[in-house]
Amino acid sequence: xxSRYLKIYRAFTLVIFQYTFIALLPTLFCxxxxxEIFNTYPFLxxxxxxxVIYLSGLIxxxxxxxxINYKDGAVLTIFSWxxxxxxxxxxxxxxxxxxxxxxxxxxxxxxxxxGLTMYTDVTKLSKLLLFWRSLxxxxxxxxxxxxxLGMLLGPKAAGFYKSEGRSDNLVPNIRRSAQIIVEIYLAYxxxxxxxxxxxxxxWFEALNHTMTALGTGGFSxxxxxxxxxxxxxxEIVTIxxxxxxxxxxxxxxxxxxxxxxxxxxxxEPWLLTISVFVSSLILSYYSVGKYFNSFAxxxxxxxxxxxxxxxxxxxxxxxxxxxxxxxxxxxxxILILFMLAGGEMDxxxxxxxxxxFWVIINxxxxxxxxxxxxxxxxKKKILYKGEQQIxxxxxxxxxxxxxxxxxxxxFALGSFxxxxxxxxxxxxxFEFASxxxxxxxxxxxxxxxxxxxxxxxxxLGMFAGRFEFLIVMYAFARVFxxxxxxxxxxxxxxxxxxxx
Length: 500
Description:
- Helices cover 67% and strands 2% of the residues.
- By secondary structure, it is mainly α.
- A hairpin with a 2-residue loop joins β1 and β2.
- α1 (2-24) packs parallel to α3 (70-94) and α1 (2-24) crosses α6 (144-153).
């Protein structure tokens, strides 16, 4: 048992070694903003601590890491994210002047791709810290730690790869799959940054907003988010980037291979697009004369917010904490539903995921169809996931329903806890859905002055939602089982010594 945990720790130090270089990336902006040189020390400290952690792993002689299975991968995933979240909080404490709980909240919000923030005025922050916020969402959304470890260890990282929510083996080789995902992600980042610049942003803001749009995180360099630009071109580019971020990497890979047949047969993009457009059309028609002066104006703002909600990005063009929008009940209800639903499987988005809804819809369809077909007629249902063809079966349905029930029950519990803190039912439901599903839209609950218990409720919601609950359960169950076994063995050994 000890040797297994030594291997897990050794693999963890490899993740932290990569994080060392990530922590240094903000310092590169000193070349463009020389006056920021005095703000580099938090990132140097973070990198130094990361390097020490990596070097500590060299003390333990581990001949071969072997293959990381799913349960060990769950422990490695949770432990890595906890430590990385603590390390990522250091710049927020030293440079952002946040206390520990606030800094940890900001760190988890970034890495989980949520976007809720403890900062009341981001325009006063250092350029390096602004980029750090965007970077945490960018790497957290893509799961860069598991991608880098996948490229380094290849098939040996299979358990870690899957435990972090990755099932998109684009090619049979895990190392090559990880490389392809990184290449796709970086290509979209370059194209998105250029598009944002053409749309009207400066280069720094274009890069930051592209990173947080693709990472479906939503951190912004402006207090008023995307809405502060009041630029239709920027909003259109952002919508495209949010859709790209919410689309599974398997579908992106099929698209770039020009396997358009497979792309069109994937149900998730259709379900996502139709949900956004139909709901936006209905809400826009309903809102004319009540909340907007024209259908075009309503459609512009509503389709942006519905896309932001379902993709889990959290960019805002409307002040949703305003009483006017809180009273727009159908709109707020749709946003809550979309936040819970989330984007596509194997994307940077969180939430229940469109694929699971696609499984449920097809199960209902097949149940009705089989009822009408002659007895003993066997029909296999094939679902596309990227280029993979999956036979719809009981396992798919059980997994979809289990995740669905875990999300709904946790959503109810978290909302209830916020209500106990004095927040209204609508605000409690909206804010916890936003946190748990990694969205970042806020109706005014999240603030640096909120009670610590409410703050940590949202932190736990962000953390559990990012790993879809099961991974957290597997990790704690694994550690608990190993600890119990060790205690029983120790007690048995003591009893044997007493008898002898």
